[in-house]
């Protein structure tokens, strides 16, 4: 019985790792007042960049692969920053476009990597009777650091003020535009890191649609956890367990496999509806999704 519980926890942590990393990136974006629905695309390009570097040769550096993934995520999210912060375009439309661009580009450019070996794979750490990915440990640490930074540091409070009342922050001398751009780039880097986990730790080969909708679940998870990094750990673990349950029951039941594949997305709709009934949307930053123009109320 203990072994079953440990196996479920380990598998839930593994699947929940990219959800947690991507969710933290989205929280960083939205705490500054910028909605980014393009997480799926950012994860895809991050996974491609990581795999492209790691599969180049047996001597390729895994640090370089991780850095490439974060850089790719930040670079693509830069398009979103320009569109939404500089040009003040609709954040939801820009995010959807980013998701399509990222997944499309990763699918197209990744064709030449299909079937190639992954020379360097991030090895899991052995802790007693189970193993854990370094990415998982990093995600848990990052969640704690982000929570501390947002609540206990001057720069973190500044970012939150931009998401709550950008006009007041502007009056106090805060560069609202720069703060939002940096938040978007940082969030994109974390989404790229989530993609690196998929390419370098969770799988050992490149496949189109590697993200498999995880980015969309991460976007919904932000609302579910009330924009709080520490709650994101529990939320990611919960959805990770649901994915584990999906694979565990698949093939051992007369229920069609499509039902199990749809389970995480159905649950997203359920938890978002419950969050709305509880009034959790009231936890959102006051200026979320609204472009800031100096002098306008």
Automatic annotation (TrEMBL):
Q: Which GO terms describe its cellular component?
A: plasma membrane
Per its UniProt record, what CDD domains does this chain match? Answer: TM_PBP1_transp_TpRbsC_like
For this UniProt entry, which residues form the secretion signal?
A: none
Transmembrane stretches, start-end? 9-28, 34-54, 61-83, 89-109, 130-150, 181-202, 214-247, 259-277
**GO molecular function term, any single one:** transmembrane transporter activity
Cellular location(s): Cell membrane
- Give the bilayer topology: Multi-pass membrane protein
Name it.
ABC transporter permease
Query: Where does this protein come from, organism-wise?
Result: Deinococcus soli (ex Cha et al. 2016)
């Amino acid at each position: 019985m203990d072994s079953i519980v440990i196996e479920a926890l380990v598998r839930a942590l593994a699947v929940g790792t990219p959800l947690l990393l991507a969710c933290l990136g989205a929280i960083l974006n939205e705490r500054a007042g910028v909605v980014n629905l393009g997480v799926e695309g950012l994860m895809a390009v991050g996974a491609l960049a990581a795999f492209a570097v790691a599969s180049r040769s047996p001597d390729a550096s895994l640090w370089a692969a991780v850095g490439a993934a974060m850089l790719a995520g930040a670079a693509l999210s830069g398009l979103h920053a320009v569109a939404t912060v500089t040009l003040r375009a609709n954040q939801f439309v820009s995010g959807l476009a980013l998701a399509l661009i990222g997944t499309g580009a990763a699918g197209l450019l990744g064709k030449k990597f299909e079937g190639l070996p992954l020379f360097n794979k991030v090895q899991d750490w052995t802790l007693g009777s189970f193993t854990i990915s370094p990415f998982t440990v990093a995600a848990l640490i990052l969640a704690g650091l982000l929570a501390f930074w947002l609540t206990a540091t001057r720069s973190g409070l500044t970012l939150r003020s931009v998401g709550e009342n950008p006009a007041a922050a502007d009056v106090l001398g805060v560069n609202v535009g720069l703060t939002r751009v940096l938040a978007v780039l940082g969030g994109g880097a974390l989404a790229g890191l989530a993609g690196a986990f998929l390419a370098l730790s969770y799988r050992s080969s490149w496949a189109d649609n590697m993200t498999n909708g995880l980015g969309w679940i991460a976007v919904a998870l932000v609302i579910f956890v009330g924009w709080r990094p520490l709650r994101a750990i529990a939320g990611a673990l919960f959805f990770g367990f649901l994915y584990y349950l999906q694979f565990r029951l698949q093939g051992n039941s007369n229920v069609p496999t499509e039902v199990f594949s749809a389970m995480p997305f159905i649950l997203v709709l359920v938890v978002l509806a419950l969050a709305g009934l509880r009034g959790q949307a009231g936890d959102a930053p006051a200026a979320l999704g609204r472009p800031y123009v100096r002098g306008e109320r």
